[in-house]
Amino acid sequence: MTVTDGTSPLADALARLPRVVDLLAARAEEHDRDATFPYQGIEAVHEAGLLTLTVAQRYGGPGGTLADTVRVLAGLGRGDASVAVLAAFTLLQHAEQARADRWPTAAYRKLLTESRRGPALVNTLSMEPGGSGALPATVARREGDGWLLSGRKTYCTGAEALAWMAVRARTDEPVPRTGLFLVRGDSPGIEVDPVWDQLGLRASACHDVVLDGVAVPAEAVVGLAPYEGQAPADPIDLAWHDLALSAVYLGVARAAQDWLVRFLHQRTPANLTEPLATLPRYRSALGEIESSLIGAEELVAGLAAGVDRGEPTAAARSGAAQLLVNRAATAAVQQAVTLTGNPGLSRRHPLERYLRDVLSGRVHFPADEAVLDAVGRAALERGAGRGL
């Protein structure tokens, strides 16, 4: 978070982005093939100042906006989707703290101190084997002035390398309370169960985390309150999540398009004398991909800027936007595969990895039906309010 070229820390970090993207792309295939954690990639993101981009200026950070964040994540997604997703959840944590100061100051200062020493990944662990949304099965039992935390969390992105975990749990009191229990990733009683073996995002280490009597001091608990059912999510939190993660998959789609362009320039079938790039039907298909991605990028950038300006409509539209953007990104990669045929599905080329990664993006968002139902309900309510 220091200035190295006379510009602001924010501008300095953004200027390093292209080199980081190239570094990530050089190792992405290896980590995908072996499902190994991209420690060097995360280190590169950190050293560039991008992993702490959203730390508030009052905490000594660059104070990156949502517009800055989607720009960075689209770039990282172009290099390695797994690294981009890992960075996204840490950036979202810092951004939430910048907006609402939800972490206790002492705990957050510890996180920032660790972030100055090296990469300090952080994520919220909410999902459980039985699903989420109900009263958590993870239990905090009173022990002296603090708590002992026990349970299992699943789909914990970055599990093996998290510096801090914000674990959603309930107390064992007669009237249970729920909240976030802030736990250091190397605390006694934490075990990572390496169950993540998915089609895409293979280097993201979304393993299970098992907690067995993990000690949490009272001052490291956030928002502990009586459980009254699933509380509605903050619209701004949702907007940051939806647009940030959507940007990752736009980056993947752009990487796929980059590879497609090179393929069309280089590929000359035996029955032709010039590359495929000279054929009108391939140019037209590429134009369809380009137009679709331009529209999706403008949608994300425009809404992100609107959220930064505090426009409620921009935040309210983020759910519909992520659906449209991720459909566009997925369709773009699928069309690239269709245009290239067998080479596009070969493990010797990265296009099949881009396809697997972009398809895996759906795990970060609600089902399409749920999004469309919410959007439809909102439209009906607006119509009723206007007397239609």
UniProtKB/TrEMBL annotation:
<feature type="domain" description="Acyl-CoA dehydrogenase C-terminal">
    <location>
        <begin position="244"/>
        <end position="365"/>
    </location>
</feature>
<dbReference type="InterPro" id="IPR036250">
    <property type="entry name" value="AcylCo_DH-like_C"/>
</dbReference>
<dbReference type="InterPro" id="IPR046373">
    <property type="entry name" value="Acyl-CoA_Oxase/DH_mid-dom_sf"/>
</dbReference>
<protein>
    <submittedName>
        <fullName>Alkylation response protein AidB-like acyl-CoA dehydrogenase</fullName>
    </submittedName>
</protein>
<dbReference type="InterPro" id="IPR052547">
    <property type="entry name" value="Mito_Isobutyryl-CoADH"/>
</dbReference>
<dbReference type="Pfam" id="PF08028">
    <property type="entry name" value="Acyl-CoA_dh_2"/>
</dbReference>
<feature type="domain" description="Acyl-CoA dehydrogenase/oxidase N-terminal">
    <location>
        <begin position="24"/>
        <end position="88"/>
    </location>
</feature>
<keyword id="KW-0285">Flavoprotein</keyword>
<dbReference type="Pfam" id="PF02771">
    <property type="entry name" value="Acyl-CoA_dh_N"/>
</dbReference>
<dbReference type="InterPro" id="IPR006091">
    <property type="entry name" value="Acyl-CoA_Oxase/DH_mid-dom"/>
</dbReference>
<feature type="domain" description="Acyl-CoA oxidase/dehydrogenase middle">
    <location>
        <begin position="137"/>
        <end position="214"/>
    </location>
</feature>
<dbReference type="Pfam" id="PF02770">
    <property type="entry name" value="Acyl-CoA_dh_M"/>
</dbReference>
<keyword id="KW-0560">Oxidoreductase</keyword>
<dbReference type="InterPro" id="IPR013107">
    <property type="entry name" value="Acyl-CoA_DH_C"/>
</dbReference>
<dbReference type="GO" id="GO:0050660">
    <property type="term" value="F:flavin adenine dinucleotide binding"/>
</dbReference>
<dbReference type="InterPro" id="IPR013786">
    <property type="entry name" value="AcylCoA_DH/ox_N"/>
</dbReference>
<dbReference type="InterPro" id="IPR037069">
    <property type="entry name" value="AcylCoA_DH/ox_N_sf"/>
</dbReference>
<dbReference type="InterPro" id="IPR009100">
    <property type="entry name" value="AcylCoA_DH/oxidase_NM_dom_sf"/>
</dbReference>
<dbReference type="GO" id="GO:0016627">
    <property type="term" value="F:oxidoreductase activity, acting on the CH-CH group of donors"/>
</dbReference>
